[in-house]
């Protein structure tokens, strides 16, 4: 499936695969933080790497909601980490990357203040087609 959603100039994700995501015609194969205004490399590979300091950094961006993509399957971080974000009044949803990307694009198109924290720690050198 190919995405071509109009988000009025935001950083919507045009396509994704096991190799990475495409934003503004650029393939990104590392873990990444995406908002309407920015695309930043995130130096984490898996949920096991995630700690409170990382979530504090996400909260400092003041999103309305954080979508955490954890790879090809859902892997939940410890509940205490999620509670730390929720206690600040910020929603956080944990999803597999495909669902996280689709949800991010929808929320972005609605003008919501959303942050996608996408973990891409798996091998991204495979020949999988972009969707």
- Superfamily at the CATH H level? MTH938-like
Give the beta-strand count: 8
CATH class: Alpha Beta
Average the pLDDT over all residues and give the rounded result: 87
Helix and strand content put the structural class at alpha/beta
- Tell me the CATH topology: Hypothetical Protein Mth938, Chain: A
User: Order of helices and strands, N to C?
Assistant: EEEEEHEHEHE
Distance between the termini: 4 Å
Q: What's the layout of helices and strands?
A:
Elements: E1 13-17, E2 20-23, E3 26-28, E4 32-34, E5 39-41, H1 52-60, E6 65-69, H2 79-86, E7 91-95, H3 97-109, E8 114-118
Parallel strand pairs: 6-7, 6-8
Antiparallel strand pairs: 1-2, 2-3, 4-5, 4-8
What's this, in brief?
This protein has 131 residues and is of the alpha/beta class. It is built from three helices and eight strands. The chain has one domain (13-118): Hypothetical Protein Mth938, Chain: A, CATH 3.40.1230.10.
């Amino acid at each position: 499936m190919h995405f071509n959603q109009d988000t009025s100039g935001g950083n919507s994700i045009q396509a994704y695969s096991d190799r990475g995501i495409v934003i503004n015609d650029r393939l990104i194969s590392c873990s990444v933080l995406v908002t309407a205004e920015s695309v930043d490399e995130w130096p984490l590979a898996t949920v096991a790497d995630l700690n409170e300091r990382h979530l504090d950094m996400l909260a400092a961006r003041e999103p309305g909601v954080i979508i955490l993509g954890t790879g090809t399957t859902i892997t939940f971080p410890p509940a205490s980490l999620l509670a730390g974000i929720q206690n600040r009044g910020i929603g956080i949803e944990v999803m597999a990357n495909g669902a996280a990307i689709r949800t991010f694009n929808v929320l972005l198109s609605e003008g919501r203040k959303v942050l996608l924290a996408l973990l891409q720690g798996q091998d991204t050198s495979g020949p999988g087609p972009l969707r």
